[in-house]
Design a protein that fits this description.
single chain; 684 residues; alpha+beta; four-stranded mixed sheet; 26 helices; 12 strands
């Protein structure tokens, strides 16, 4: 249970359009060798007025969102390539008649096969979860209630609150118990408290969704509606004690370290003895509580609400958990899709079963699938080239830090030392995760999904009291994403992201630095964003900036917050404070990647291609990464819950701050993207 993990994007899976033969290799259609495809542009728009539309307007017009998607863009297309690859791998595993029990092909193949078996799923219906529902129904008092709440946590349900094991932010070598707010099915506090028409509509649909689920597990329509309304009221009370997503960005506010005895005194009505016994723990010493107010609220609500109300809460959380939501009959899957996808994100139709099954298997056993993926699709030469780019980016970052005038020498020295200590995780793990304790029995899809949840929970719990394993990866190698982890001071670039438009071995440096180079710089900059800057090179949260440097830096971030507050999506303003970490990383990544490219061009100059200089192609490559079409419902949800700004503003926002962009595309006063010098956020 990690405290903070900064990802490049929340990339959704997509429908198949583009296939690439192998990562970093020659694309199947031989299209992306470095030239600019003007068919993707909208040349009726001046680049100095709307660079996003200029570069991507043609592509957006010609690539409507597939009915099964909430959005469609570069991440989706790249992810779809990987889904197709994993599909091939899983089909081969299913077809392998000689696979040994407990082998990788047996585990992933059997899980995938039962996810595909709609006949069995529809025949079984609710039966595979009846035993778990019976356990909830048998709750009769406080003791059995807390036993069942804890049991459901092991199955992946965040009922009441969330518990796990993760690094101590201030002692990064130590794994500790962590308690965070949970128990809210809707995406955030605002979904329960905001009185806008859309939020009221979502709460109405939420009641309808819960009513349908309660009926499926045997309740009458009247009883089901009553229980649904009761749970909404309960979760609304829970939400009143929760932090907003923006508030959780304060790493000091969410670091409340205490002894377990102090936690017990703070929450005397939680049966901690039953909690420990259900987990198989004798004792816990130090704990970190993310939200003390929320835990105190849960303590009070556990007594002020009846056992029956909490049983309703547990039932719906079980049925909405990741292990169950899409693991039962077509009827239940359709009910879930209607709310979680159609209402919340505007998605029109469900993905085909094979694709949903591939994604579920990938999510359940990422590194098992990853071992097969790397063996089949990965090019070792790509790892070498990307490693070189990362090293170049780090050196460029050091130079930029050295040359900034607003940072003191003592802070610069520690910042450069942090870059020297950063761990690079590229393409795939050197040591694979041990799945030997995970059994996939093939008896029922949801039963094996529960086994996966139990495996994950126990894997995490087993870390308690042991040294931090710094070799562990937070993403599988086939993931189209990247991340920075401050408590480990590491960046991770899985193999899955090393494809067009992020990276192409046949493409020139200008486009690659604008693509994967900016991604690399983005993750490096997370080490210095509003949260990452509070962790040192060893991953410990401590004050290492001078007071003057900190004040100066956060004033710069304040300007970025103000800029993004001004962007509007469907009449809703972007939340600059929520997205500040990602916006800072985008600006830093763009700045550092450009600096690294300029160093490269000194020794390896590149000619004008298709009428564009290398500097111009860099910015074009950057803008291509964030091209996407988005459904309005998804867009409105993302503005409320996603720490990443919408793709359009991830391009327009940082570019309007960057002097080099003004030079490359002759941006002048009067152009829509022009900002006066005093309003440009120049950090690195």
């Amino acid at each position: 249970m990690k405290k903070v993990n900064y990802t490049l994007a929340l990339a959704a899976a997509g429908a198949s359009i583009v296939l690439i033969s192998w990562i970093g290799g020659q694309p199947a259609d031989d299209k992306h060798k470095g030239e600019v495809d003007l068919a993707d542009f909208n040349t009726t728009v001046k680049p100095s007025n709307d660079f996003y539309e200029y570069v991507n307007g043609g592509w957006m017009k010609n690539n409507p969102i597939p009915a099964s998607e909430a959005r469609w863009g570069s991440f989706n297309i790249a992810n779809d390539t990987d889904v197709t690859r994993v599909h091939n791998i899983l089909n081969a595993a299913v077809a392998d008649k000689n696979k040994a029990a407990g082998s990788i092909p047996q585990k992933v193949g059997d899980f995938y096969a039962e996810a595909l078996d709609s006949n069995k799923l529809n025949k079984d219906g609710i039966a595979p979860v009846k035993a778990e529902l019976d356990k909830i129904n048998n709750v009769k008092d406080s003791k059995t209630m807390w036993g069942e709440v804890t049991h459901l946590m092991k199955l992946g349900s965040r009922t009441m609150f969330s518990f796990g094991v993760g690094q101590d932010d201030k002692i990064s070598t130590k794994e500790v118990s962590r308690f965070e707010q949970g128990g809210l099915l809707l995406p955030g506090k605002e979904y329960y408290t905001d009185t806008t028409a859309r939020m009221r509509m979502i709460r109405k649909k939420f009641v309808e969704y819960q009513t349908a689920i309660f009926q499926q597990i045997g309740e009458t329509p009247d009883a089901a509606k009553k229980d649904a309304e009761s749970n909404l009221a309960l979760e609304t009370e829970m939400a009143s004690g929760a932090m907003t997503l923006t508030e959780t960005r304060n790493v000091h506010a969410t670091y409340n370290k205490m002894t377990f005895e102090e936690l017990k005194k703070m929450t005397p009505d939680i049966d901690w003895a039953v909690f420990l016994d259900t987990l198989g723990l004798k004792n816990i010493d130090t704990v970190i509580v993310g939200q003390t107010k929320f835990m105190q609220s849960i303590n009070a609500l556990s007594k002020s609400h009846s056992i029956d109300e909490w049983k309703n809460h547990m039932r719906i959380h079980l049925m909405a958990s990741g292990a169950v939501r899409y693991s039962l009959s077509d009827t239940l899957t359709a009910i879930n899709f209607a709310f979680w996808s159609k209402t919340m994100t505007g998605t029109k139709v469900m993905k085909p079963r094979w694709k949903r099954s591939v994604e579920a298997t990938n999510a359940a056993m990422g590194e098992l699938v990853g071992q097969l993926y790397v063996a089949k699709y990965f090019s070792p030469e790509t790892k070498e080239r990307v490693h070189k780019m990362v090293v170049n980016m780090i050196e460029a970052y050091k130079e930029r830090i050295t040359n900034v005038t607003w940072m003191s020498p003592e802070t610069k020295k520690i910042a450069i030392g942090k870059l020297d200590k950063i761990t690079l995780k590229l393409c795939y793990p050197d040591k694979w995760r041990d799945y030997s304790t995970l059994q996939i029995k093939g008896d029922a899809y949801v039963s094996d999904a529960f086994r996966v949840s139990l495996y994950r929970f126990n894997y995490n719990l087993n870390k308690l009291g042991k040294p931090v394993d710094r070799s562990e990866w937070g993403m599988s190698p086939q993931t189209v994403n990247a991340y920075y982890e401050p408590t480990l001071n590491e960046i991770c670039f899985p193999a899955g992201i090393l494809q067009f438009p992020f990276f192409d071995a046949n493409r020139d440096d200008a486009m690659n630095y604008g693509g994967i180079g900016v991604v690399i710089g983005h993750e490096l900059t997370h080490g210095f964003d509003d949260q990452g800057c509070q962790y040192d090179g060893d991953g410990n949260m401590r004050k290492w900036w001078t007071d003057a440097d900190s004040v100066h830096y956060f004033s710069k971030l304040g300007l970025v917050i103000k800029q993004f507050d001004g962007f509007v999506v469907d009449s809703v303003h972007v939340k600059g404070a929520l997205t500040i970490g990602e916006n800072t990383a985008d600006l830093g990544g763009l700045t550092i990647a450009y600096a690294a490219l300029k160093k490269e061009l000194k020794t390896n100059p590149e000619p004008v291609v298709d009428g564009f200089t290398a500097e111009q192609r860099f910015f074009i490559g950057f803008a291509q990464v964030w091209r996407q079409n988005v459904r309005p419902a998804y867009s409105r949800q993302a503005v409320n819950t996603d720490p990443h700004a919408p793709g359009r503003f991830r391009v327009l926002g940082p570019l309007a701050n960057m002097n080099e962009f003004y030079t490359a595309f002759s941006v002048k006063q009067g152009d829509a993207m022009y900002r006066p010098d005093s309003l440009r956020a120049v950090i690195w």
